[in-house]
Specification:
With 162 residues, the protein is of the alpha/beta class. It has 5 helices and 7 strands. The chain has a 5-stranded parallel sheet, covered by helices on one side.
Length: 162
């Protein structure tokens, strides 16, 4: 199987060519149970070495644990070897505390995510689970303008919605 080459696809109108297989960060948040972090870090770096270049995470995944793990595991990996996406809007497992789409929380969230990831920017910043927002007006009039400002500041390159 070592003779197989990773395939890549251009993502929409971006300059990113993403591997057709990506690495999801939910498991690194412990949502599927505990795992050996040393072994998982070796696996993450091996995936990048084999050509997987997109990592998806969220502050919701383990309430920051996934981002923290990924940030530590990526130490020493050149930034041009991977793209990374994280999310804003959903944070806690407890439903009554889970969602906050306010501009203030969105801005605070990306700053916290960047600290945990040990990065200066993410490639894609997605508004997470917009269907749970109290109103679409909040997303349109507050969340998206805040995310756009974060893009203008260089904290994310592209914006998405899940």
């Amino acid at each position: 199987m070592d003779n197989l080459e990773m395939q890549y696809r251009k993502l929409g109108d971006t300059d990113m060519r993403l591997s057709i297989i990506s690495l999801g960060g939910t498991g690194y948040g412990g949502l599927y149970g505990e795992y050996d972090e040393e072994e998982a870090a070796v696996t993450l770096r091996a995936a990048i070495d084999k050509g997987i270049n997109y990592i998806d995470t969220s502050p919701f995944y383990g309430e920051g644990r996934s981002e923290t793990f990924i940030g530590q595991a990526l130490k020493g990996v050149p930034r041009d070897k991977f793209y990374i996406g994280t999310k804003v809007g959903r944070y806690k497992w407890e439903v009554t505390q889970s969602f906050n789409f306010s501009a203030e929380r969105v801005t605070q969230s990306i700053e916290e995510s960047l600290q945990r990831l040990q990065l200066d920017y993410v490639d894609i910043l997605q508004v997470h689970d917009v269907e749970y927002a109290p109103s679409i007006d909040l997303i349109i009039n507050e969340t998206l303008p805040a995310v756009h400002k974060l893009k203008e500041k260089g904290l994310c390159r592209y914006i998405g919605i899940t």
